[in-house]
Amino acid sequence: MNRSWTYILAALGIAVLIGIGLFSSRFILYLTMRVMILSIFAMGYNILFGRTGLLSFGHAAFYATGAYGVALCTIHVHSHPVLAVVAGVIAAAVMALIIGFFCVRHTEIYFAMLTLAFGMMVFSLMWNVRGITGGDDGLSGIIRAPISLGLISIPIMKDSQYYFFVLMFFVVSVLLIHRIGRSPFGLVLASIRENHVRTEFAGLPVKRYRLAAFVISGAFAGLAGGLAVFLESNVTPFAAHWSRSADPVLVSLMGGLQTFSGPLVGSVLFVVLRELIERFTHNWMLWFGLILLAIIMGFRGGIVGSTAALLKRSSEQG
Amino acid sequence: MVQSLVHVCLAGISAGMFIWLVASGLTLIFGVLRVLNFAHGSFYMLGAYLCYTFLRFAGVDFWLGVLLGPLVVCVVGYFMERFLLRHVYPLELPYQLLLTFAMVLIFDELVKMIWGAGSIGSPTVPGLSGSVSIAGRDFPVYNLFIIAVGPLVALGLWAMLEKMWWGRIIRAAASDREMAAAIGVKVPALYTGVFVFGAWLSALGGALAVPYVGLLTTGMGEAIIIEAFVVVVIGGLGSLKGAFLGALVIGLLTSFGTRFIPTLDMFLTFILMAAVLLWRPQGFFAES
Amino acid sequence: MDGQGMKRRDFIKAGLLTAAASALGPGVMKPVGLWAATPSIKGPVKVGYQAVLSGTLAGYGEFHKMGAVMAVEEINAAGGIAGQKIEMEIRDSTLAAPTAIQNVRYFVDSWGADLLAGVDSSGQALAVAPVMGQLDRVLMVTHAATEKLTEEEVFKKGVRQVFRICTPTYQDGNAAAFVAKDLPAMSWATINPKYEYGFTTWNMFKETLGKLKPGVQFTAESWAPFGTTDFRPHINTIMDAKPEGLYSVVWAGELITMMKQAKQAGLFEKIKHVMLPVGAAMDVLEGLGAEMPDNIWISGRYFFLYPDTPQNKDWVARFKKRWNHYPAYVSETAYSTMFAFKKAIEAAGSKETGPVIKALEGMELDGPAGKRVFRKEDHQAMYDVPWGLTVSSPNYPFKIMGKQIVIPAKEFFNRPPFEGDASKPPFKS
Questions:
Q1: B18: CATH
Q2: Minimum CA–CA partner of B259 in chain C
């Protein structure tokens, strides 16, 4: 796709999202916020997974760190939402730096298992430090205070107001992640994926690049977790559980790994499919599983990847 | 104090042997073939439910149930490998994860539809149901049986993989598919065979778990899957001896941890896992 | 700004309501009753119900469903609520807080529910409570037991939309202590779940028993993480401590596993007094069958042989006929919830949240479990559930409660204002 088309699509997407924010019902607002938050999580994750090929199985730890960061900051330090989100992102990035420092020594399956181990340690920690995290009950009743900007303050208490708060972070994240992909840094990551030995020979510190990607994706996970706290007004340690770490993996794979918009499409599918399936059956796991199977067997490389390939092929023929 | 230590050890060893039985199949599928099979827990669950069904409704005795249940799971494993997984091998590794995750959802729901959502208390095994007094405290006979079966399965597997010619072929094929194919090994069939055998082992673990855990639930597969992966990783991927000893260590760690440092529980397990991966990725017990 | 305007309007509305209510006092109840005769509610009464339908605890969801579906069938067959049919939709809560929130939002904002019910775990209940304030619909909690829900969320934070029809942790902790004080055991230990429910109940038990019976000792604690399948290490810890009594709120499948493994280790020969606050759950009694030892103290949120009234007996018989099962406690709470809704809506003459809350506050309800009163301050249903000793019976393929002790709820439920020693039992007269 050429440049102008990308711009037109992006503008269209933002227009639709603003339209949803202005005109749709509270439940659609809520679902769209869930989709945007999951997208931030998955697109950030894809900087690591899609770009460098490292399969992390512990990113829920950073999601949860961001979430607890926001919650604790709101409760104990200051209720300014932007400040809280920034605190959450920083906490997640620091956590990712510490864990990443150990994990990037390995690749492939060893990396995946190492991130799983660290992720579960964080989970166990959050479960057991009851005085701070509230144990399994978690922290609840986290209020969205107005964003004070000196003279004026913008309320985000209502869902229709908070929606634009999420939308703003979503757009900024998409732009940032897009830029990262096109930057020299992103190109180095891609070359690591193709052949890390050659990249190393080229004199680039591969591990340091991997760590940078790890921390950036961890920070986005923290942002997603933080936004989710304000949406749900609560956080529990389950946010750090390995089964939550699977979410961005599934979303990326469903949408398509190597594509920029794959995780986005995957997030929409993940949230909307589940919601739709539950409307006509209690056996949602069966149907969700079958649809997943169909996607894997039918659309190798995810929905976006295969659709793009199909379009390309048909345009070549035509 | 002696009584206490003896029983903490016994609990640890039997827990370890139980984990080993569950993880032994994963050592083959994940450790040797490097197939990221998340549905391993489902095989375990299916093995347990099928064994229970044969016991309860076909009126067969426990041993026949242990034999028949896992055989049915073999068929399930065959179809899953032959018609689904095989098509995903050429794709990147994570696609195996996605596929097997979808299978976990499907299997869980199917079990719920067939056997009902409620948990099922299992019957006792005649002949192995009592307890014997060891150091003045009762210990179940069935756990002694598990402690005995664990090493037997390990020995059998070791003999097959290390001593017999096809064990070597499996290893060769797993480490270099093209090379193995070039010397005339039917690699796809070999993969299917090993996968089915691995499925049988985990279903066997499930069948033997029926009296051990005393309970069948629709989520039982997810409860053990992470522990099984931990064992395979600690032992070093593909190392039978490592996985066996790794399971023993995890069992003892849990038992001693619960008794003497109770606040840490699973934290200990994952610290051990991370430590092994960081300093001895080839496995805790591998000769470097 | 829009948001501010809304807030002000809501505030005024709420103020007017409370002012009117306090001015008219109890007199306002009379016309409410009259309206009921000429129902003004339009359209069906829609109830959104959520319970866990997947994973290890999916059996509980099924039991919820049986009770709720049966109540809906009976109410509709008898003419509905004030002439309107009940419509119910059930969703899987998966025990996760975000799912519980998505469900209530779906029910209210998309499906158009008038009332909500269900919720299994304490974490979910605490997560959903603030959302109920925002969505402004009544939620009747039928299983989650955390005392924080009614003490903190309802009483202190003023989430008036939330009610609870099942017994809270007081039944598991405080009432157990009232029973334990008369047992000849001076040292107690616990194997409890390693999460808030376990910590809270053990603390309540210790505090209350400590006051009721000075000199009693608490010698060992072993905390079993969620999903424990091997209790032997925990059993060793307890047997090493050699207590005279064991207290455990381990529940559902895990309790079945624990009991079997404890029996294998000969624990019941060494420890004579065992208290299981949720041991009278049907899944546990049926799951253990004859393997449940005799003379174990058990209780629950309801037990199908109590109270010994024609109404309860009749209900149990109907339930058995409809589902071929004995009702579990969540079946009873789900069933009674629908009748509580019916009574409240008919009394209020409306299915709007405000009037329904008013009608529910202080309302008496006769159900299979006996008489309940929804305490006005914290919206907790006050009703009695017995503690009893397990015994075999020729009529049932599982152990039942033999000797029963009923401690009236008002004697051991914490009291508002939930601060200071006087709000916790034992109460000084």
A1: 1.10.3470
A2: C237
Q: Where are the domains of chain C?
A: 42-167+309-382, 170-300+386-423
Instruction: State the Cα–Cα distance between residues B170 and B28, nearest whole angstrom.
Output: 10
Residues A183 and A174: their CA atoms lie apart, in Å, by 14
DSSP string, B131-199: EEEETTEEEEHHHHHHHHHHHHHHHHHHIIIIISHHHHHHHHHHH-HHHHHHTT--HHHHHHHHHHHHH
Burial of B183 (0-12, 13-18, 19+ CB in 10 A): exposed
Q: How many CB pairs under 8 A join B and C?
A: 125
pTM value? 0.91
Question: Any residues with CB less than 8 A from the CB of A272 and at least 6 apart, and which?
Answer: A31, A35
Number of domains in chain B: 1
Fold of C42-167+309-382: Rossmann fold (3.40.50)
Burial of C226 (0-12, 13-18, 19+ CB in 10 A): middle
Interchain CB distance below 8 Å, A25 and C109: yes
Q: Convert the pLDDT of each residue in A33-46 to its tens digit.
A: 999 999 999 999 99
Question: CA-to-CA distance for B163 and B159, rounded, in angstroms?
Answer: 5
In this structure, the number of other CB atoms found within 10 A of the CB of residue C428 comes to 6
Nearest residue in A to B111, CA atom: A286
C59-101: per-residue pLDDT in tens? 999 999 999 999 999 999 999 999 999 999 999 999 999 999 9
Residue B130 backbone zone (phi > 0: left; psi -120 to 50: alpha; other: beta): beta
Query: Residue B253 falls within a domain, yes or no?
Result: yes
B228 lies in some domain: yes
Tell me the DSSP string of C134-155: HHT-EEEESS---HHIIIIIII
Give the residue carrying structure tokens 């000199």: C215
Instruction: Give yes or no for B106 touching C (CB within 8 A).
Output: no
Range of the domain at B115: 2-279
| Identical topology for domains C42-167+309-382 and C170-300+386-423 | yes
Q: Tally the residues of chain C.
A: 429
ipTM: 0.91
Q: Is B81 on the interface with A (CB under 8 A)?
A: no
* Residue B286 is assigned to a structural domain of this protein: no
Give exposure, B136-166, as e/b (b: 16+ Cβ within 10 Å).
ebbbbbbbbbbbebbeebbeebeeebeeeee
| Count of all residues that appear for chain A in the document | 318
Inside any domain, residue B285: no
Cis before C184? omega within 30? no
